[in-house]
Automatic annotation (TrEMBL):
Pfam families: Amidohydro_3 (PF07969)
InterPro entries xref list: Amidohydro_3, Metal-dep_hydrolase_composite, Metal_Hydrolase
Amidohydrolase domain ranges (all copies): 39-461
Gene3D superfamilies reported in the protein's UniProt record: 3.10.310.70, Metal-dependent hydrolases, Urease, subunit C, domain 1
Keyword tags: Hydrolase
Protein name: Hydrolase
Nucleus keyword on record: no
Annotated source species: Pseudohalioglobus lutimaris
GO molecular function, one term: hydrolase activity, acting on carbon-nitrogen (but not peptide) bonds
Amino acid sequence: MLIQNAELGGTRVVDVRCDNGRVTRIGERLAASPGELCIDAAGGALLPGLHDHHLHLLALAAAESSVVCGPPRVTTMRQLAQVLRAQAGSGWIRGIAYHESVAGDIDRRVLDQLVADRPVRIQHRSGKLWMVNSAAAELLQIDRYRHLEGVECDATGVANGRLFRLDHWLRTMLPNEDAPTLARVSRQLASYGVTGITDATPSNSEHNASIYTRAVDSGQLLQRLLLMGDLALKKPDHPDVGLGACKILLDENRLPQLDSLTGLIRAAHDQQRPVAIHSVTRTELIFALSSLIAAGKFPGDRIEHASVTPDEALPLMQQAGVAVVTQFGFIRERGDQYLDDVEPEYQQLLYRGQSFLGAGVPLAGSSDAPYGSHDPWFVMRAAVERTTASGRRVAAKEVLSPEQALALFTTDPRKPGSGTLVVEQGVVADFCLLDRPWISARGRLDCADVLATVRGGELIYERPA
């Protein structure tokens, strides 16, 4: 492949040749070889391929056939009833993105009033809670599983249909559900310039890994993939599907013993795996950092989300040697709700950006799709603008420059936030080619500017003429 007239580094226009998956030559007016695929960049910026450092691929694909049950599309109980009852068929209804601002903490009895004649399961937008109606509860036999941690019961001891952190169990109870096809979302990601993704699903298993490897081999999945999971997850036997960090979930209302978490982190390090610790509250963050410091530094350790970060956490992050992988897109998508719910003195601590960089904490970006938009350019714009859907500004001092926002998605997937990738001779030929110079694109940060996407020297997306 020969990419001609491409802007590199915002300063020069050159030709870039790729062979056997790597950049083999960069120069001016390179002659095309017989049969070589040539792409005329016409002065457009040639960027490293983008990497989304935290999403949930199967859930993203399943969301394509799910009904949205939360803001801004659904804001009232009446609207929730309407969208659920409008679903065709007689089988399962799968809802996503619910928030309690719609109708409070709903349970099976509330859902029965909305839909009683077919099974319904709705996921909270946080991803940690499923709510089912009685028809679903009967199929899942949840009254038989009241002993499971995460099955919530009412005052009489009856399971109320609220299931916390039980995704893996749900999959075992629904064995006949086919894995969703990944082709559509993978093509969408390619159209955004995404050449790699890290799947941060904590319950990833060998079964999930086999789904992904088959999807790569069949051409459904176009991106390179790193799989997070627990310590039992083994390295997939595939060159494009790698083993990522050990994912650890923290819930403030049921934190483990500090020694227990420290031991788990050390066990991961002993396996030569970093850890990725889910921390969305101040308490979870400080607890995670304390355990990381006690366990000792390891390259690639990371905090997921860091939704609320007090100033006193910044030196602890430095001491722990961790990166932060956060989701600035939530500022745009959920910011109005945050500003309504979060006390004013803590609003400046939401999804910080410049403070991390100023403290020397490596910072990387992600979508957390399907819980946020999987368009990385949307996330970049949110990091630069920090405005909500209604136009309110969230922690203006935390804004990033367009270059800093781009860097969120162009760092080493195994050490997010460290070592921004560049297009140079010898590197893997993963590119995002824009239709305009960076000086023009930086003010837009728009996925519509992506002209082509290359992974391993192969064209995986080209914008239709």
